[in-house]
């Protein structure tokens, strides 16, 4: 009963965190579109950019003012369906909530340009866009469209794939260049590149870290790591060259977002432990990653 109650409390905390992240990310992304993207006539890539591209084209060639919300929600219907089937129901549900909330906020928030300098718009708009996506991903959600592709590929390949999606977005931007001019398209590519780099730096789930742990409590720490992280641990027995004491070295690979908690756990078990933390370029073989629900 106690375990079930604790588990339910944990699930509720996750749900509330997800909703808060979705709400904050939607506001930041909507303000960014109305303050930077519209001011610089940018096409931010992804389905957001595609929605703006369709909206501007309808206005330019047919004189029709299409609501951003209707276009964006319609375009994301198919990716959302695929997300339910191939990624996870909770993740897709939170993403759909963000898509709908962001879509209507863009229609409701007034245009409030901060600057018309195209380079400043591209750089700071890209930073805000990247931050919004990172917050959404932290809450186990996304902004939809090509983000679904990035998350799916990251789970399959076990490494970041946002630069691959940047390539897809560049095609959308070049298409926009043929219609609205290549100067706006080139600044849009800068916007998208900055956004992608922010996500790569701040979203740590897809990055791997190697830990080399030198301790006298090898058996205890090794067992605790197995249960806590579900990652494999390899044990080596040796001797310290300075004090000539018998030591155990534990070798394991964890996600970059797990390092802080794992190090805290280890230091609670052995306050004199020595840990070497190294970034891993990549891993092959079985590596447990918490599934996206």
From TrEMBL:
It is found in: Cell membrane. Residues 231-285 form the DUF2179 domain. Keywords: Cell membrane, Membrane, Transmembrane, Transmembrane helix. GO terms for cellular component: plasma membrane. The keyword Transmembrane helix applies. InterPro entries: DUF2179, N-reg_PII/ATP_PRibTrfase_C, UPF0750_membrane, YitT. The chain crosses the membrane at residues 16-37, 94-113, 119-139, 160-182. It is a multi-pass membrane protein. The keyword Membrane applies. Pfam families: DUF2179 (PF10035), YitT_membrane (PF02588). This is DUF2179 domain-containing protein. It comes from Massilimicrobiota timonensis.
């Amino acid at each position: 009963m106690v375990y079930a109650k604790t588990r339910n409390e944990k699930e509720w905390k996750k749900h509330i965190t997800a909703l808060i992240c979705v709400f904050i990310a939607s506001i930041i992304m909507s303000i960014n579109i109305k303050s930077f993207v519209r001011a610089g006539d940018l096409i931010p890539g992804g389905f957001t950019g595609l929605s703006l591209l369709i909206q501007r084209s309808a206005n330019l060639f047919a004189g029709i003012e299409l609501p951003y919300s209707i276009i964006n929600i319609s375009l994301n219907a198919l990716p959302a369906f695929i997300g339910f089937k191939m990624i996870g129901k909770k993740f897709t549900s939170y993403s759909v909530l963000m898509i709908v909330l962001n879509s209507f906020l863009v229609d409701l928030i007034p245009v409030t340009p901060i600057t018309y300098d195209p380079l400043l718009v591209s750089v700071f708009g890209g930073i805000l866009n990247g931050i919004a996506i990172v917050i959404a991903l932290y809450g186990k959600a996304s902004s939809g469209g090509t983000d679904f592709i990035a998350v799916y590929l990251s789970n399959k390949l076990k490494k970041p794939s946002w630069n691959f999606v940047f390539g897809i977005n560049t095609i959308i931007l070049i298409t926009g260049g043929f219609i609205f001019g290549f100067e706006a398209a080139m600044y849009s590519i800068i916007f998208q590149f900055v956004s992608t780099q922010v996500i790569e730096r701040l979203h740590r789930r897809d990055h791997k870290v190697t830990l080399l742990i030198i301790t006298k409590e090898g058996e205890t720490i090794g067992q605790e790591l197995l249960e806590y992280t579900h990652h494999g641990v390899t044990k080596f027995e040796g001797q310290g060259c300075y004090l000539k004491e018998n030591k155990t070295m534990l070798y394991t690979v964890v996600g970059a977002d797990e390092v802080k908690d794992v190090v805290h756990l280890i230091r609670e078990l052995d306050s004199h432990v020595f840990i070497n933390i190294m970034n891993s370029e990549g891993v092959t073989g079985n590596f447990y990653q918490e599934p996206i629900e």
